[in-house]
Amino acid sequence: MTMKQVKLGDKWVGDKTPVYFVAEIGGNFKTVEKGVWLIDAAVRVGLDAVKLQTFEAETITTKKAMFNLEVTGYVPQYEVFKKSEPPKELQRAVFEHARSKGVTIYSAPSHMKDLEFMEELGVPIYKIGSDLACHIPLLREVAQTGKPIILSTGMCTLEEVQESVETIDTAGAGDRLIMLHCVSNYPTKHHEANLRVIPTMKEAFGLPVGWSDHTLGTEVSLAAVALGANMVERHFTYDKTADGPDHILSLTEEEYRQLIETVRAVEPALGHGRKVPSSSEEEHRLTNRVGIVTLVDIPAGTIITEEMVDVRRPGNGIAPKHWDEVLGWRASRNLEAEEPLHWEDLA
After folding, report:
1. Residues 6+ positions from 16 with CB-CB distance below 8 Å
2. Structural domain of 284
């Protein structure tokens, strides 16, 4: 299946393009100053894009819905979201600063009502979080904006992803869709990452697939890239110990820089996936492989026997697989010892 590429801003995402790195900062700032710092840090690191979260407690959840947190046990979702609800003025300020710095910035809605404000913001890309991955009416509405879509698929089965992809495709945005494999657990345990889903999804849909990483450290992100992830999305922070649930699993400026540098060093090693000799191996195929060679001088007309030949370097003669075919032929000319044997030497 031919892999599609999707353009985000002035960069393409897909196979044969550099991994696209996104900083998720949505839950990690509550003031313009902190938002500006994160944008400026993203510029210093060389990130491709910054992502926010657009939501209101009133529409994202009900007052009876609960979170079951390891530390505190059951807590009302409404209270958690109300505490971290990003004011529209704050979002506008951060968007304006990112644009002044030339940084691609976009957001994720939590409800159909968020779309009007996001269009007002002029988001160039829509991110659909895993919680809304099966919200078919929302997917249809977002697809009709004509903008690229990044669809997180945490908590989904492959069949559910198929339905969401078909919805987006039917609405006319199938060629503007990027999917993210994701595990909706914070932080994600390494044994839950299931990164082999990345090539499975690429094969199933022929679309770019990335990895939305909620693990601690950077090892799993590197493994995702090795398995073909076209995009990596990581939470980004100014301080892992800051107040808020996302800071602890976020990367700092230096951690994200090191991750990008490592991936850029590794990317050339991933190759094209076809099992063929490298350009440097073409010469080694002649010098370092083996072929059938003469052991002694063989006069023209002499029947070639096992005692006269052997399999040794170099490999630019008759291949060893033809050993039985060579024996019993006559030399077509005088052959010198220690030379590769060629088909034209036989008669």
Report:
1. 5
2. 279-345
